[in-house]
TrEMBL record:
Gene Ontology BP, a term: tube morphogenesis
SUPFAM superfamilies with a match to the protein in the record: Cystine-knot cytokines
Gene3D superfamilies documented for this protein: 2.60.120.970, Cystine-knot cytokines
Family: Belongs to the TGF-beta family.
Composition bias type Polar residues, residue spans: 241-271
Phylogenetic placement of the source organism: Eukaryota, Metazoa, Chordata, Craniata, Vertebrata
Leader sequence segment: 1-17
Annotated keywords: Disulfide bond, Glycoprotein, Growth factor, Secreted, Signal
Highest taxon of source: Eukaryota
Domain TGF-beta family profile: 269-387
Subcellular location: Secreted
Name of this chain's protein: TGF-beta family profile domain-containing protein
CC per GO annotation: extracellular space
């Protein structure tokens, strides 16, 4: 099955994309382990990773990230609405400080330098005021989020206002503050990340009693209410097509050359024609199921959702004459005519390949056990055609 995954990833329209499996099994049985690890490494690269994240024990993904995933993707991970997210990555971070004060710090070391920060949000869970204090003349309070600055570097005050808003005193639930500016500056200089400070004032500007306005902290409250930073970014990755694979990349070459092996020997033509008549002769080009099971691949410990997805694959022949249901390109039509007329030797019938591709989304734990939602283009064959 892995070999199909590889050929799908490469989207190669060659006879080599449909290797005879029995040939490969016989040929590679001695090296199966090696092939498997090379194939899985290549598959990780498709998902933009070098190594599988190490996740220890069972962790719970934040509800916000689960809800976001379910809004963006269906159960199979296929994108429901491609315009919902601006970038292709959403990362969540829990506060590392666990301070008694309303101070927070987030470790952003897993964000790649090349990622473009689009929006950063501080999510705080506002608790109900303590009952003894509920009779109070204040109905609203002013909540301000400050970025803490290194006073030894700048002779300004030690903080910079990021966001400020009026919040009803008696409300309870999540409050979101935009802190994009601060996160951009931390991305430029990691050492400048001294954290955030939240100040609550009355409408008159005096300090509010912090027993009245309380936010859940990672220290004393349930995990589901922990302060969280949500970062929307774009990693600049568009799609993994054949063109984007570096020809000098040894892993890419090693794996993509695997299916081509049967073509290199003198017997390749017979292997191909046998393959053709047995498997494809009767069947016109069509889309068939190809389930990529993350559990089978060994990734279920770090992928939260989906458990797997149907990538589909394109299979079947493209004989003359090509009907419109084969969705042929003009080029394919001409090629099939030349093939049928046998005008030139060695011109094969067109290939049955995906002609529409859909994106999928993955919700997973990264190396630092933060939950990440990532969007991947061109992962599911939407339809097949003769090209
Ligand atoms: C952030 O996390 C990384 C990896 O877990 C760690 O190496 C680094 O020391 C952390 N930074 C801070 C400031 O805690
Ligand atoms: C600190 O001052 C330097 C110039 O003196 C400036 O470039 C930098 O943006 C300042 N940092 C902050 C966080 O305001
Ligand atoms: C690949 O390597 C060759 C020499 O080994 C070099 O000439 C060529 O520019 C490289 N191609 C890429 C895309 O790096």
């Amino acid at each position: 099955m892995m070999l199909f995954v590889i050929s799908l990833a490469a989207l190669a329209c060659t006879a080599a994309a449909r290797p005879s499996l029995s040939y490969l099994e016989n040929h590679f049985s001695a090296e199966t382990g090696e092939v498997r690890s090379a194939a899985i490494k290549r598959l990780l690269e498709v998902f933009g990773m070098e190594d599988p994240p190490a996740v220890h024990g069972h962790k719970q993904a934040p509800q916000y990230m689960l809800d976001l995933y379910n809004t963006v993707a269906d159960v199979d991970g296929v994108t429901k609405d491609p315009y919902l997210l601006e970038g292709n990555t959403v990362r969540s971070f829990f506060d590392k400080l666990h301070s008694e004060q309303v101070e927070f710090r987030f470790n952003l070391s897993t964000v790649a330098r090349t990622e473009k920060v689009l929006t950063a949000e501080l999510h705080l869970f506002k608790l109900r005021p303590q009952s003894t204090l509920t009779f109070n003349r204040h109905h609203f309070c002013q909540v301000s989020v400050y970025q803490l600055l290194d006073t030894s570097r700048n002779n300004t005050q030690g903080r910079k206002l990021l966001s400020s808003r009026l919040i009803p005193v008696h409300s309870t639930g999540w409050e979101v503050f935009i802190i994009t500016q601060a996160v951009r500056s931390w991305m430029v200089d990691e050492g400048s990340n001294l954290g955030l400070h939240v100040v609550v004032r009355t409408l008159g500007g005096s300090m509010m009693d912090m027993k009245l306005i309380r936010f859940a902290s990672g220290r004393t409250h349930h995990q589901s209410k922990q302060p969280m930073l949500v970062l929307f970014t774009d990693d600049g990755r568009r799609s993994t097509t054949l063109e984007s694979i570096d020809p000098n990349d040894t892993t890419a070459t090693a794996t993509s050359s695997l299916p081509q092996t049967p073509m290199s020997g003198p017997s390749s033509r017979t292997a191909r024609s046998l393959d053709y008549s047995e498997e494809e002769g009767a069947l016109p080009c069509q889309r068939q199921a190809l389930y990529v099971d993350f559990e089978e691949i060994g990734w279920s410990s770090w992928i939260v959702s989906p458990r797997g997805y149907n990538a589909y694959h394109c299979k079947g022949s493209c004989p003359f004459p090509l009907g419109q249901n084969m969705r042929p390109t003009n080029h394919a039509t001409v090629q099939s005519i030349i093939n049928a007329l046998k005008l030139i030797n060695g011109i094969q019938t067109p290939c049955c390949v995906p002609d529409k591709l859909f994106s999928i989304n993955l919700l997973y734990f990264d190396d630092d056990e933060n939950v990440v939602l990532k969007h991947y283009n061109d992962m599911v064959a939407g339809s097949c055609g003769c090209h």
